[in-house]
Structure formats: structure tokens, C-alpha cells
Amino acid sequence: MPINHEHQVEVSLIGDFQPVAPNAVMWVREDRDYVLACNALSQTTNHHGPLRIWVRHPSHYAWLRNFAEQIDLPARFQEKTARLLLAELWNVTVPSWLDDDTILTQGLLNLDVENTAPASFVNRLLTHLLGAVFANPVLSSNSLEPVIHALNTDAATVAFQQYPVAGRCLEDKCVEWEKNASEAWVKEVCKRLSQDFLGLWRPLSAWSILHHYPGKVLEYVLTPVQIQWVRKVPPKVIATLPLESMVREQILTQIHLFFNSIKAEVTTSEAFGKVLGCVSGRLSQEFQHILELLKQDRIPVTARDVASVREKFQSCPGISISQLNSLAYLVKPQRPTLLKEGQQWSRREWIQWTVNDYMPYREWQTHAGHFDQELEATVQRFSEWYVDHYASIHQEPADSLIHGISALAADWEKALAVILVVDCLPINFWRLLDEALRNAGFSQHDRSYRFALLPTVTEHNKPRLLAGQWENDKAAYDELLQDRAKSEWAGRKLIYVSSLRALAEMEIPARPATVVLNFIDGDEVLHEDVEARITTHEEELYRLYSRMAETVHKMADHWTGSPEDFHVHVVTDHGACWILAEETRSFDSKMVSKLFVDEKYRFATIGQDQLKEIPENLWHLGFRFQSPFGSENIWYFIPRGHNTVRPASRKVAYTHGGASPEEVIVPTGLYKPVKAAWKAPSCCFLGLEMEPDTGQARFYIQRVVTLKLGIQNPNPTAIRVVRASVLLPETDLKGCESPTVAAGQEAVLTLDCYFKKSALDQPRLEIEILYEIAGETHTILVPLASKFKSAMATRFSLKDL
Asked: Pairing between strand 719-728 and 764-773?
């Protein structure tokens, strides 16, 4: 029989163990295996690649050697030990301290390790069991955390129990790391790592959290020896180290004791800043302690304090975005202007007051539980004004919510218009929806405010909003919109969906169309006592709005038209309010219980025949209201301001149905998946002294000079001045009042400047203004030709006579 010498034939006696067999290997363990092996040797020309035969018994090994000689087959016969086989299978050099018994006893030959490139046995085993980080020749600042984490997993515990040789490998690896270390802290860590890596993890856990706390805090958690060496480890190296469970409890105990001991001393922003500098920002418990300090009314919380807390805890596990956003409620805003006796405001003035002054203060009020009787009087004046001017307001297309959708269709010719009818969207929660849409890739292109209908409830407002008229004979929202599409939108395709799931599963129209989502989830959340579920309304709403924004974003991705023609309109049917205990004006009677059936609402529906039965003291709390539009013969009781009639239950939730500003004035907006082309604000200096000869503005050095800049906002949404800086000349800015400029309005920026002596050589003043609009920041430079003079030159002289 011809023999193919191109094929390599190996027969190895490996003894009484079974390694992981690679391809093209035959096992000879019994006589029948020996027969198969002989057949394979006889037909080597049929094999594609090397023929390798592993033999368990010496007798089979001898028989195969004799058989190969009889058929004149070139073959290599060898006796392999476990060490030799391990070196071959793993592509490693086996260390001298690893013997055959250890290899066989611990089953190392059964491990299917990666062996493509040569490596040390230590690296090969540790990387296979614990991860690639153990292949590094140096323990660096980037690899310490992964090493500790890998050693303290359940998988690592099992690996060290099953393969005790891994412990010796870890010792050798630590010796290598210590030898190659260039930093003292690495040597300290390496000395302890192989001896007791759990004992290393605990002190490093404590140090990662407590390194900025007073030293006494650490002394109650670690021993003096541990403190001595752990202080050598740079805190940034272990900034995200997972905490060992036992020491975590000790850490939390000491943090609790620390805050209890110092809270009475935190009476200034400076003291608060020092305490905030102590915390790690990694524990939600630290956040709660910081929150308690801010709420204890010992310090006037500033926007800077809040910004510092947000920055510290922005990556803290367990702290949500809405929790960080809610910190803003701790900063007491400026008290709103109060309506004077006999004074009247226009619609625009009421909207501006509500959006810019009242709502920021009202949010702080409700979170701080602060009752303001004088402000409540102005709120009640709004209710009176609104009821008195109801007919004229809703005859104006630019102001009435009933015309809110009609105003959207002006530029729909090529657009896919998605109308998000967000049930119950008060002004104070608009920022959550705005942030969710911006995070999903949308930019705000327009924002305005309208007046909701009375009573401010879904059943009354939403059908009229969708129909665009006061009366209709359709009960279903879909029918209302289809009729409107035929009569008002020239037969434009209209798709109505009542859930996010339906919106997500909807086939995206290829041609221009209008999609209306009736999103009621937010209204349901606001009526819930979410605190009982250990959450907040802000948190729950942001979660819902984010889901909605992501769904709309996926629609925009699949829209085949231009991104500029993908319009997202946000409208709502009414707002809501939070009633403080001191604001309730309620009494208990059978009539009240009969009229106010649902505590979610503050209004009552009264039939014509019931009017005479209503007690007079009820009317003192509100208004007898009948809509001037339509033909319904129904009367409503609308509460004045924040008055409530139904006795409050323990439920903590929002309510609506009244005529407070936050229930009546509601936001609308337009978003697109493209950036908006905002116009830069215009600026002018006010009240300047001028040089008669040159026309330059005159300023004096080395005294405080007050500059006033008028800022005009030509955009349909507000501009907030974030910061103003004097670039030229060299100036100490002693004070700055940064305004928010409402859409289409003007405001004044005030700067208190101390010009230094070097200003005498400067021919101009330059002010840089950083402003924010729709979540985007921009800068403008405002130059002014100027003459800077010494204040001494203003003294009188005989030469002036």
C-alpha cells in the first residue's frame, strides 16, 4: 500500500487523563479504538491534514508502533507528560513549580483557553479565569479598578476554589506588577493584593468615598495601618470603585453621624460649599443629607449652590435627572409683582406675569409649603378678570385655546404634522417635555401661550380644541378630526391614535399628512399620589415624556420627506394646580358632597333648577359661570383663585377645574428635527453720558459705575441672560442683574463696573453677553466707543469760572 509522506502522523502516549481534544485527534482507550486507529494508519492518504492519535495504555501504544513499522509508515511516537501537553495545548512555557499531578488534579487540561499567541502560563490562566486586564505587564491607574472588580465576583470565588493554582499565579503576577511599578502607591497595592485582595478592597472602598471627609470619619472605619497606606492611593484612581458590602454600611453610618453633627453649623453658602466639598457624590444617601441641609431654612439657597449640587451628583446611581432638576425649587425666586388696587393688566401682561414671575415663584411656594396671602389676592384678581373678559378673550384667534390647532396649519403644505395633544400640561412641567424632545434630537422653533376654556377639564375642553368650534354633534375624537380634515384642511389625510403603542406601530405616511396623538397618561399621573410610591410627579412625567419623544423621533427617522417638513406640535387642553393647606376654603355639607363628586376637580356642574338651592357662602368662594358660547344650558361653579370647596383628603396630587393662572394659561410649541434659526437679540446702552466733541460715551475709572443695557428679543420664545462679562477695559464686575427677556419684549441688563486705571488708554468698551434660548446657548459682543477719565478730573477749578 503506498504511503503519502506529506501527511504527518503522530502517536502520543499521554496516560490516564483526557485533555480538551483539538480537531483531527483519535483517542485509543479500548481495543476497539485500537482497531480504528490501525485502519486510520492504513489509510493516511484519505486524511486532509495531520493525523494525531492519543493513546491511553502503554500496550496499545506498543502495538501501534509495531503496526506502523510493519506497514512502513513514517510516524512520530512520543510519550507526553501533562506538563508537555499543557505547554502544547496552551502555547505557553510551563513554570517549574507546576507539576504533572497539579495539572491533572485541577483539570487544567480540560480548560479550553485561547492559545493563538504565545504567553506566560500565569497570564494565560488569569486572563482565562478573570479577564484580559491580567495580561497587562503593569498595574496602572486605569487597571486597578477592573482588577479589584474581577477578583471580587462570584465567578472569581468559584475559579479560585476550583483551581487553587490561580492563587499562585496571582502572587507571581503581583510580583511582576510590583517590579514594573514606577509609582509608590502601586507597590503598596501589589504587596497586599495577592495576600488578601478582599482585605484590599474594603479599605479602598472606604477611601474612595471618605477621602475628603474629616480624618476622624475615616478613623472610625479603618485601622491606623490601613489609613497609613491607603492615603498613598490617588482618589481619582478608585473614583468609580464598587463598594464592598460590609464596609459600605460602616461608611453610611459615619456619613450619617457626620451630617448630624455639623448641620446646625451650616448657616451660610460658604459653609454649605465646604460640606459639599466633602461628599463623594457617589451615594444617594449623601444626596439626601445634602438635600436636608438645603431644606432646613438656615441658608439662603442660591442658584450657584444648586448648580454645584447637580454637578456633584450628576453621575450618582439612584439619583434621577428629575430629582436633580427639582433642586431648582429650593432657590427662592423674586416675589412676583402684585396687582395694585384699581390697577388693570392686559392679556399680554397677565401671560408675561404668569410665565416669567408667578410660575417660578409658585413652584417654589408649593415645594416649600409657603403661603403668601397678598399673592393669593392677585391670583384671585386674575380669576375675576378672566371670568369678566372670557367672551372677548375667546373671540380672539391668537389667544383662545379653541383656535389653537387652527393656527398650526399655515405651513403644512409639504409637512408631516404630528400633533401631540398632551392632556393636562401646566406651564411648570413644560420644561420636562421640552428637555425630553431636545434629548430626542428636536429643536424648539416656536412657543406661545393660550387661554383654556372654563371649566378647565378634559371633557369640556378637548372636544372643542380638536373640533375648533364650540358646538359639535360628534362624540368620538376621531370623527371630529376627520370632519375637520375634510372641511378645513382640504381633505388632507388625518390619522388619529390614542396611545404611544398605536403611534409606534403606525405606518409612516409617505405623503404629507396630519397625525394626532391623544396622550392622556400625564393627566393620570398628576392626579396620583406618587409620593406613596416613593417617586415624584416630575420623575414620572419625565419618564412618560421621554417615551413619547423617542417614539416621535423614530417616526422622524422613517419619514422620507425633508426633516424641515417634519413638524411636531404640542398642545394641551388645560393646566393644573397644587393647593396649599392654607389656601383651602372648604366646608362640609350634603350639598357640597353632592356637587363635588370627584376630588380631582375643583368645579361643580349645576343644573338650572339647582341654582336656588346653592347656599350663599358657596358662591362667596367662586363664580356662577355659564359659557357665552354655544347653546348648552348648564351653569358651573368656578372657584376663585386657589379656593377649594370639597374638604381635602390625605391624597397628595394636582387638581384642576378652576380659574387660577396655572390652570388657565397653557403652553403650545413647535419642534422640528433641525436647528431653529434664532435671531440674535438687539442691545442698546441706556442713560449714557456723552463727550460733546467726539460723541464717545464718558466713564470714570476707580469708582463703581452702573451700566444699563436694553435687550430686545425678536424671537417667539424667551431669552435668558446667563452671564455678562466686560472684555475691555480691565474691570472688576461688582454686580450683575441678568434678566429673562420674554418673546417679542424688552428687558434691562444692569452691570455694576469698577474700571481700573489701565482703562485710561482704552478707546472702547466691550461687553460679552452669554444667553440661552430654547436650551441653546449663544453669545453676542456689544462694543461702545468710549472715553475713560479719572474721577479727579471732575473737581471744580477757578479755570471753570
From this structure: antiparallel
Residues 693 and 652 in one domain: no
Considering the domain architecture, whether residues 726 and 664 belong to the same structural domain is answered as no
Q: 714 lies in a domain?
A: yes
Q: Which pLDDT band, with edges at 50, 70 and 90, does 303 fall under?
A: confident
CB atoms near residue 3 (< 10 Å): 16
Q: Taking residues 321-337, report their average pLDDT.
A: 86
pLDDT grade, residue 177 (50/70/90)?
Answer: very high
For 128, phi then psi, to 5°, come to -70, -40
Q: How far apart are CA 84 and CA 87, in angstroms?
A: 5
C-alpha span between 769 and 745 (Å, rounded): 17
Are 595 and 694 contained in the same domain? no
Range of the domain at 733: 682-794
The last residue of a domain, from among 675, 706, 722? 675
In terms of Cα–Cα distance, which of 765, 564, 773, 745 is closest to 680? 773
Rg (C-alpha) for the chain, rounded Å, is 39
Same-domain pairing of 706 and 664: no
**What pLDDT score was predicted for residue 128?**
93
Distances in Å between the alpha carbon of 250 and those of 225, 227, 313?
18, 15, 21
Helical spans, DSSP H, in 243-283: 245-262, 269-278
Whether residue 587 has pLDDT greater than 70: no
More confident residue, 743 or 394: 394
625 shares its domain with 575? yes
Strands (E) located in 572-679: 604-606, 622-625, 635-639, 665-672
Q: What is the pLDDT of residues 338-369, one digit of tens each?
A: 999 999 999 999 998 999 899 999 999 998 88
- The mean of the pLDDT values for the chain is 88
Asked if 401 contacts 450 with a C-beta cutoff of 8 angstroms, the reply is yes
Grid cell listed for 580: 396649599
Question: Quick check: helix, strand or coil at residue 22?
Answer: coil
- 544 and 429 fall within a common domain: yes
Q: Say what percent of the chain tops pLDDT 90.
A: 52
Record the pTM.
Answer: 0.69
C-alpha grid cell, residue 302: 442660591
pLDDT at 634: 87
Decide if 44 contacts 72 (C-beta within 8 A).
Answer: no
The C-alpha torsion from 599 through 604 and 606 to 610, rounded to 10°, is 70
In tens, the pLDDT along 383-426 reads: 999 999 999 999 999 999 999 998 888 788 899 999 999 999 99
Cβ(754)–Cβ(368) below 8 Å: no
Q: How many domains does the chain have?
A: 3
- State the number of CA atoms in the 13 A half-sphere of 273 facing the CB: 10
